[in-house]
C-alpha cells in the first residue's frame, strides 16, 4: 500500500504531471495562491480512508509535546517605547502540542504521502518554487498538531513563506481558520490594518471551515491568520508537511526543544555544539 491508496487521484491527478488534467490543477492552485495566498484542495484524501488517518493521529497524540507562551503577531519582544495599543505590544496566550516526526515511521500514512515523489513535485509546481526540498529534520519533517478544548492559535504572521497542511479531525466546535490576505507587504507593515483585526473591527477577515481530508497550501508571511479556540472533548488534528529551500536543513536546538521538548545529536552538530552536550 502507498499514498495512491489514500489520495483522490480522480479529482487530483498528481501522479500524472504531464497530463492536461494535472497541468490544469496546478494552474488552478497557482491562481488561488496568487489571488489571496491560500488554496484548499477539498477532499484531497479519499473519504473512505479518513478514519485510518484519525486512528494514526489518535495513536500518536499522547506523544505530543505541549508548550505554552505569550506572543504578539510578530513573535517579537515587547517594545515599551510604543503605545500600549500598538500591535507589537499586544500579547496573547499560545498553546501548542506537536507530535514529533519520529513517531511517524515507515508504516505511517502521513509519511507515505510526504515521501511519495509525486506529492512534493506537485506542491513545488503549485508554489512555483525553484528551490524546494523535504525538510531533513528527523523531528519535524512530518508532524501532527493536536489542539484540545480551549486551545488554538492567536493571530500571527508566519516566519516562513508557506505551509502545507492536511486537516485530519475537527474539534466539536471552533477551530476555524481565519485569515486576512495581503494585510502587510515586504515594505509596509500596515500596523493600522493589523490593529483593526486585533480589535475586531476589520472587514478583511476570511473564514475557512476546513474538513477532514482537505489539503491546504497557505502563504502566511504577509497574511495575518489564526485558528479560533476549539470547544468540546474531541481533539483537532492537523498534519503538517515541511518543505524548505535548501537541502539538509534542520531546526536550531533552541527552537527544536521549544516545539518538541527535546533535541537530537544532529541539531547540536549542525549548530556547532558538542553532541555529548545533549540533555533531555
Written account of the structure:
The protein is an alpha+beta fold and 280 residues long. It has a single domain (3-249), classed as Sandwich (Jelly Rolls). It is built from 7 helices and 15 strands. The protein has helices at residues 20-36, 50-60, 109-115, 118-127, 191-198, 253-260, 265-270; strands at 38-41, 65-71, 92-99, 133-134, 142-147, 153-156, 163-169, 173-174, 177-180, 206-208, 215-218, 224-227, 230-231, 236-241, 243-244. The strands form 4 sheets. A 7-stranded antiparallel beta sheet has the order 1-11-7-14-5-3-2. Helix 1 (20-36) packs across helix 4 (118-127). It is globular and about 55 Å long. The protein starts with 19 loop residues before the first helix and ends in a 10-residue tail after the last helix. The mean pLDDT is 95.
Summarize this entry quickly.
It is built from seven helices and 15 strands.
Our Rg estimate from Cα atoms comes to 19 Å
Strand count: 15
Strand-residue proportion: 15-25%
Number of domains: 1
Helix content: 10-25%
Shape: globular
Strand order, sheet with most strands? 1-11-7-14-5-3-2
Tell me about the largest β-sheet: 7 strands, antiparallel
Helix tally equals: 7
Order of helices and strands: HEHEEHHEEEEEEHEEEEEEHH
According to CATH, the homologous superfamily is: q2cbj1_9rhob like domain
| Overall CATH class | Mainly Beta
- Runs with pLDDT <50, length 5+? none
Please, what is the average pLDDT?
A: 95
Terminal CA distance: 36 Å
CATH architecture: Sandwich
Write the CATH fold name: Jelly Rolls
Q: Which class do the helix and strand fractions yield?
A: alpha+beta
Amino acid at each position: 500500500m502507498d499514498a495512491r491508496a489514500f489520495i483522490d487521484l480522480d479529482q487530483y491527478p498528481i501522479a500524472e504531471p504531464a497530463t492536461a488534467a494535472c497541468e490544469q490543477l496546478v494552474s488552478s492552485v497557482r491562481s488561488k495562491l496568487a489571488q489571496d495566498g491560500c488554496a484548499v484542495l477539498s477532499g484531497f484524501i479519499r473519504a473512505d480512508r479518513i478514519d485510518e488517518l484519525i486512528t494514526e493521529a489518535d495513536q500518536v497524540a499522547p506523544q505530543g509535546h505541549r508548550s505554552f507562551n505569550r506572543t504578539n503577531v510578530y513573535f517579537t519582544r515587547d517594545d515599551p517605547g510604543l503605545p500600549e495599543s500598538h500591535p507589537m505590544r499586544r500579547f496573547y496566550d499560545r498553546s501548542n502540542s506537536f507530535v514529533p516526526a519520529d513517531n511517524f515511521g515507515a508504516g505511517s500514512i502521513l509519511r507515505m504521502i510526504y515521501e511519495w515523489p509525486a506529492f512534493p513535485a506537485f506542491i513545488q509546481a503549485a508554489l512555483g518554487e525553484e528551490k524546494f526540498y523535504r525538510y531533513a529534520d528527523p523531528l519535524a519533517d512530518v508532524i501532527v498538531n493536536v489542539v484540545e478544548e480551549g486551545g488554538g492559535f492567536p493571530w500571527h504572521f508566519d516566519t516562513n513563506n508557506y505551509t502545507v497542511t492536511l486537516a485530519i479531525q475537527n474539534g466539536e466546535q471552533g477551530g476555524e481558520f481565519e485569515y486576512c490576505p495581503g494585510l502587510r507587504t515586504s515594505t509596509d507593515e500596515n500596523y493600522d490594518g493589523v490593529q483593526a483585526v486585533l480589535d475586531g473591527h476589520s472587514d478583511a477577515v476570511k473564514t475557512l471551515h476546513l474538513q477532514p481530508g482537505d489539503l491546504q497550501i497557505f502563504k502566511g508571511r504577509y497574511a495575518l491568520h489564526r485558528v479560533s479556540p476549539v470547544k468540546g472533548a474531541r481533539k483537532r488534528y492537523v498534519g503538517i508537511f515541511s518543505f524548505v529551500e535548501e537541502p539538509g536543513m534542520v531546526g536550531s536546538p533552541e527552537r527544536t526543544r521549544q516545539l518538541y521538548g527535546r533535541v537530537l545529536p544532529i541539531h547540536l552538530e549542525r549548530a556547532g555544539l558538542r553532541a555529548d552536550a545533549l540533555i533531555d
